[in-house]
TrEMBL record:
One of its GO terms (biological process) is regulation of DNA-templated transcription. InterPro entries: AAA+_ATPase, AAA_lid_NorR, CheY-like_superfamily, Homeodomain-like_sf, HTH_Fis, P-loop_NTPase, Sig_transdc_resp-reg_receiver, Sigma_54_int. Residues 8-122 form the Response regulatory domain. It holds the Pfam family Response_reg. Keywords: ATP-binding, DNA-binding, Nucleotide-binding, Phosphoprotein, Transcription, Transcription regulation. Gene3D superfamilies: 1.10.8.60, 3.40.50.2300, Homeodomain-like, P-loop containing nucleotide triphosphate hydrolases. It comes from the Bacteria. This is Sigma-54-dependent Fis family transcriptional regulator. GO terms for molecular function: ATP binding; sequence-specific DNA binding. Residues 143-372 form the Sigma-54 factor interaction domain. The keyword Ligase does not apply. PROSITE patterns: RESPONSE_REGULATORY, SIGMA54_INTERACT_1, SIGMA54_INTERACT_2, SIGMA54_INTERACT_3, SIGMA54_INTERACT_4. The modification 4-aspartylphosphate is found at D57.
Amino acid sequence: MYMNETLSILVVDDSRDLLELLRRQLQDLGMNPYISDNVLEGIEILENTEIDLLITDLNMPKIGGEQLIRYCSEHFSSIPILVITGYPSVNSAINVMKLGALEYLIKPFTADELEDALRSMLGAKTVREEVQTTAVIENFQGIIGSSKKMQHLYNTIQRTKSNRATILVSGESGTGKELVARAIHYSGDFSSAPFVPVNCGAIPDQLLESELFGHLKGSFTGAITNRAGFFQAADGGTLFLDEISNTSLEVQAKLLRAIQEKEVTSLGSTKSQKINVRIVTASNVNLLELIAQGKFREDLYYRLNVISIEIPPLRERENDILALLKYFNLKFSKEQSKSKLKFDRNALSALNKYAWPGNVRELENFVQRLVVMHDDNITINEIPNYMKSKVQLDKSASLSMSLKEVEKDYIQKVLSANNNNKTKAAEILGIDRKTLREKLK
Ligand SMILES: Nc1ncnc2c1ncn2[C@@H]1O[C@H](COP(=O)(O)OP(=O)(O)OP(=O)(O)O)[C@@H](O)[C@H]1O
Ligand SMILES: [Mg+2]
């Protein structure tokens, strides 16, 4: 798993067999399990040990798991709780969620299901604590995230550090392609030479050629002086061609020649010039599809793609969502001279489960907006509905409404169904009118 420190997990279940099984599974995940077959002893362990997460059964002889959940969320509100039970019912699920449990697994479950549940819960917890304490955030050349996939990516970047092989960076929009291109340059051996980024999509095609290769005075209308191109400017360093799919076949042909010959010829010139650059390109469209449509040269593609770096979408980087959330929270609150936002468990859980189609850019903008609009606590209420919809399909997280909210919602429904007749509503709700009046306040 992704965690560096050893986490202590308390498991309470009346089945000795299951306890032993879970003990082994948790150890395999690098965690430190404490087990107990009864609630009283469980509470004792909670009181005397630094527990990071509680796993508990519901139905146990003498004292049931509900009591433990209630105790734990009252006295140790930061400990996430995972409920495991062999008696699935929507009602009991809703009830334990109201008591403070975060996730729900139905027995029997696989080791993978357990790991997934722990992963999302611990992600939430780790960040919740770190947001308050840590000032320095681990990163690779400004890239935040230590998921397995990103670590693999950093390794690839490190391997390219002392050569000039071309690199094609691909990934969905907002995954950080430009950031990766910069990291490639600045972590490499030639980082003191220039890094020259060119957005091929932003430069009109007729201009792109002269911008890339330079031109001599008078080579075309408007060429009033000699001008070096981006290739010459990047000599010794890195030329980053962003949105490479936006180049015409003519420009592609010239690029191919420049890469093959390692030399460029300015427009209007007869002399070519040797250049020594690493070319990094980026694309968020599938170049192979463009090749099939005849819009991209296959030979150029292979020249550009000697090393291929694919940035995974954010939703596939376990735990990075929360690390980035923390990072942007710090960044924007500092920028605006505000104190950091505090995300509660349910809010974090929802954000962690959201698919982030706009990837890191979407997350970045989202946090910026939150920091502007809110002052301290972010609960599930501050999370927009479209982000929660997936969560609501999920059996555990639909239960992200607090007991108060559920109650308020229900009281309002009963009232309006009875034309605001409080006596009738109180009767249906099973409370007296005075209590209802207080609740309405
Ligand atoms: N891992 C990361 N850590 C910190 N910031 C990141 C990370 N990934 C992306 N960002 C930030 O998210 C924003 C989008 O990243 P970037 O512009 O590199 O995306 P892109 O892949 O080039 O997107 P597009 O395909 O739309 O051009 C930038 O502000 C960038 O700094
Ligand atoms: Mg980009």
